[in-house]
Each structure stands twice: as structure tokens, then as C-alpha cells.
Amino acid sequence: MNFLQKILLAILAASALSAQTSIEGTVKDPSGLAVVSATIDVYGPARRTVKSDGEGRFRIENIPAGSYRATAVADGFALRELQAEAGKAVEFQLELAAGATVIETASRTKEEALHVPFLVTSVSRAELRDTATASFDEALRTVAGLQHATQGNFFTRVTTRGLRDTADVLTLVDGVPLRQLNGSADLAMIPVTALQGVEFVKGAASSMYGRSAIGGVMQFYTVPEGGPKPSGDVAFTRASFDTYEGQGGLHLPTRAGRVGMAGVISRSEGFQRGVGRESQFFTIVGDHAFSRLFNVRLAYMGSDVTAGRGSIVPLANGRPMFGITREDNFGIPGVRIDGNLHSFTGKVDSQLTNNLFLTNSFNFNRYNRHFEGGITIVPPPAAVTKGYSENDTRQDSHLNDTLLQWTKNQGNVRNTLTAGLTVDWGNFDQASPTFTGAPTYRGPNYNVPVTNVNNDPRGIRGATNTTFYRQNVLSFFAQNHLVWKRISILAGLRRDDFEQTLTRTDTRVTAANEAGRWSPRIGGDVTLWKGEGGAVVAFANYARGFRPQLPGLNVQNNVVIPQLLRPELTSNTESGLRYQGRFVNAQASFFNMRKLDGQRSFRSGPEDFIFVNATTRVRGFESELRVRLPRGWSAYGNYAHHNARHIEFRPTLTQNFSGNRLRMSPQNIAGSGLVYTVGRFVWNGGVQYVGVRPLRDNVFQSQILPSYTLLNTSLSTKLGPIQLVLSATNLSDVYYIADDFSAQDAGNPGMPRRVAMQIRYRF
To answer: Fewer CB within a 10 Å sphere, N or C end of the chain?
Structure first.
């Protein structure tokens, strides 16, 4: 019998193991009461996930006989693990915990947050629902050291550890990367109200995820939770700025799987005059286990957003000029952005043996966008155009990811080896007309032109150039996680080889480059103390990340030449402590991160830029705390100190900005909140502080933006299946600058006070 015949017989034998048995049991708290909606996972001859019902019971049917590793976890409880035999009942007794105890994003598999050697944060579905979360800063308020901003009413960014490009932190939606070919993530396509949960992992993670994971990974879950019975909810929200929103979700269990779906429809006039936004979002997932060798998941996600462009505010000494308010809009009337996203995913899981698991997923992603933008407002005496630009883009990207995981438990030792191969390819086409003869404007009246007064504010439309960009990435990786008694060691390595080409219709010159990068990752933790009430763990890690930068075509002395920028590289060293107990969860870490060859722009004129590479360094401290207090009270707090500076930034022979603090990077960021639960009511109160920040880092004496403090509150009550939530953000109506704009002396205002009322019905 040859090798191929043996493999075929093994597959046939495994498939013949029909679903003739089950695992059932109960989940209880320390007092013996049922734990509702606990998540139970079993690993062995088959891999399954179920939820406990209203009496804490669960049943996993149609699985092969054998021994299984079973885990159970729920909000407010620590993870518990047992050995289970198919056909026999098991009972989980969960211990109380002050925060989330399981994380999936760090290593692409569920694991105890206590023993993940990185700074990790989870936000539960209940937290998001009880506060009627409507923005990313609310959804991520418990994550230390983050800033949130939106440019021109559309481009949303999350800044961490001095990294402020949307391509610096990889964004995942239900396990699928949300990114353009340049690595950027268009967060505007994901409505925050659709989120069912959030995970955030700090530090470079390219060894697991490849490009764009140079500063961390944040994962958004949008599919409703599963359970033993059909369930769902619908909600309607009415909020400030003439905002209306409807949303809903549905979970339907089947004999060997489930169907889950969710959708959001919203419209808002926005807080700036003449600016509105309409969006539609829908996701649907179907899971079905045909056999242990053939578990299939099919998913679709679609999003469509239309938004008017907001304006910016010219600044002097860090404050708005000429009495300009955040509601003022000096943009060109009717200018807008239309984006639509379609994502299709197919995934097949195979439990080859009790210890060996294989999964393969394929994703096709189409992203189309019509962009009209550019609003240049700078302090006098400069007179500038409004910088109008326009383009139509279409991107098709494909991702095939194969992952093999081997897990071995023997005595006090558990070893998990994960290896994979990723093929990532796509194309990006962009058509951009040119514009000349645009009027120029000078403050304080940015609506009255001073030159070309009879021309359209956009300028005179000229020829259209089309850019064609292609990218191929081939990657392989391996990671091993060894746990022995109180010691855990993780080591991983990834190799990415990529090639890129860029052409343009107005020239025959091609910009093409190819390169490869190794991304190592090593970490470990040791349990310093473990008692009945909790454990203290010390952890440390070193990781590197990379991101290829798009090639370009530049004109110098009337000659078109390729511009080939080196890939950005980051390295991060970190060490910290973590405590997990019944009533307190806390973690803190020190880190030292360096970014090489980061692309930076230098303004050489009112509307001209020079692009160069810069080296930056960020050192800092980050900490998070969650406490469960008596009598229905709980609290959270976080604090981060960042020292972010350029090590080398020389845009010209005469300009040297080395040593400057990174733009928009505060040294101190903090947040805290209280939650009080009594009967049917849940009250939340929170405060967020962002310290002073330099507006720019490509001048010798930058304006310094003042610090700001935001107050948020919400009150939720449940009346049977109905939940009512009243919430307010920026309660004191602070006028602050949330982001800069294209390295000029102007900024984007933050959102004024927002009040919302939401009603939700669960069934």
C-alpha cells in the first residue's frame, strides 16, 4: 500500500466516524447558580463551540467518540478547562474575574489572556450595548494610550504609540483583514454600532499577520453571538445632529451549525454645516459541520457610505483663528466621498487527528471609492487654493490563507505549533483628472477668492490620468507556544516576499520593486504567584513588523523617474506585569519601539511637499485597571506616557528636524470610569484626558495644541426584553482639535456634545 492510498484510507475512515455521540453538561458560578451564555469550546476528534442556555446547560451533538479538551468562559468569569469524554456529562464551575480572560487576536487562536506575553485589551458586547457606543473613541475607551480623530468627516484614525497612519495598526473584521493594498484601513466602512466585541493587541505582530501589523492589531466582531436557541435584537437610535439609525441582528442555530446576520442603516447631518453622512452595512455568516474533516463557513460583508467633506480650522498658538467655530465649513459645496465595500470569505476547517487541525480560508475583497477632497486653509498672509482633487478608485484583493495547528498535552506540558502559508494578491486602479486655475483664498474670509475670482472653486478640469498598481505577496510563518508549569515561551518567524508595479497612462516609465522581509517574534511569561483568588504574571516580548510602501512616479527636470521607497520597519521591546483575580484585573508594561524608513512629508511651499524617509523612536509606559467593587459598583482606569521623537528627519540639506516630538503625540493620555448596576439600571460615567501635543514636527517651533478632557455618561435600563439607553459624549461641550491636516497650521475639530436615545428589543 503506497503513501497516497494510506492517506485516502485515513480520510475515508475519519469521514466514516459518523456523529453518534455527544458531550453535555452545566456551567455554574461559585455559589452554584447557572451561568448563562457561557462559551464552551471542545477540541479533539472534532472542534465545536456552543453557548450555555438560560439554565446554564449545554449540549454538543453529532461528534465522534473520544477524549476532548473542553473550556468554558463567560463575561465576568475566568477561563476553566477540563478533560471530557464523549458520551459523559461534565460540570464547569467558573471563578469570578474582573475583566475579559480570553483573547483570540494575539495568535489567531483562543488563549488565556493571562498568559499572552503582550499588552492586550478586550471590550465585551455588554459594555458596547450598555453605553450605546457610537464612535471608536467610545468603543476603545478602556484601551490605554489611544487617540481618535476624523479628518474631514470621513477618514477615521486610531493613533497608538506615536503611530498615526491607518496602515500602522492592522484592522481585522471577524478575522478578515480590512485594508487597502497600501495597508491603510478605511474605518469609515465599519459602523461602530454594529460591533459585537473588540480586541486590541499592542506591539508589532507581522510574524502572524504580515504587512501592516507594525504597531498592533485591533479586531472588530460584527456577527451576533451564538446560542442554543434562535435569538436576535433590533434597535433604533435618535441622536444629535439630526441622526437616525436602525440596526438589528439575528442568530439561527441549525442541526450542525448556525446562521448569523446583522445590519445597520443610518443618516446624520453632522456637526459641521452642509455636511452629512448616509451608510448601510450588512453581514451574514453561515457555519455547517458536515464531518470532522469538513466544517464550512461562508461569510459576506457589505458596506456603503456617502459623506460630505468637512472643513478644517486655521490655528495660531494652538487655538482657532478669527473666531472660527467647529460648525463652520469653508469647503467647496457639494464635495463628497462615496465608498462601497464587498467582502466574501470561504473557510474550511478539518480536524485531521485529535491533535492536528487544518484550516484554509479564502477572501475576495472589492473596494470602490469616488473621492472629492482637499481643503487647504492656512493662516495669512499665504493665499492658497482649496486644494480640490478628485479620483475614482477600484481595488480587487485576494487572500488565501492556510494554517496548520498541532497541539500536544502531556502532564504539565502543553505545546502548540502553528504554521501557515499565505498568498495575497491584488490590483488598484485610480483615475484622477487634473485641475488648473483654481481661485486662491486668504483669511479671515475663506469664502471670498482673491485671485481667479471667476473660476470654479475646483479649478478648470484638465486631462485624466489613470494609475495602475499591482501587488503580490507570498508569505510563510511558524510559531510555537510552549507552556510548562508556570512558564510559557512563544517564538515565531515569518517571511514575506512582495513585488509591486506601478504604471500611469501619461508615461511609459514603470516603477517596480520587489523585496523580502523576515519578521521575528519572541515572548514569554512566568507566573510569579498563584493563589485561590488570582495570579501575578510577568511577561516580556520582542517583535518586528514591516509595511511595503507604494512606489511612485515623480517628475524632475521634466523627466519622469520612478520613486522607490524602502519598506517601513518597526522593532518593539516590551516587558510588564499582569494580575488577574476575582475582583481586580490589571496590567502594565514598559516598551521601547523604533520605526525605520517611515515616510514623512515636508511642506516646501503653500501647496508643495517633499516626501522623505524618517527614523523615529517611541519609549513609554502603559497601564490598565479593572476593578469589581461591592454593592454593584465597578471601575476602570488607564494611563499612558509616551516619549515619541524623530531620531533622523532631514528633508533637505539645510533642514534638520531630528529630535522633534512626533506631531499630534501627547506625552500623557489617561482615562477612567465608574459603572453602577442596581436592579434593572446600569449607569456609566467616564473621563478621557489627552495632554498637550505639537501640531507639526516638520518645523523648528511648532504650535502646541492645548490638552483636553472629555466627559461621557450613559444610563441603561432593561424592562423585560426592552432596553433603553440615554447617553451623552463630550458632556461639557469642549472645543478641541482632534487631528492635524496635511502638515499645515490647521486642524480638524473634535465632535461637540452629542446626546442619544436608543431603544432595543431582544428576542
So the answer is: N
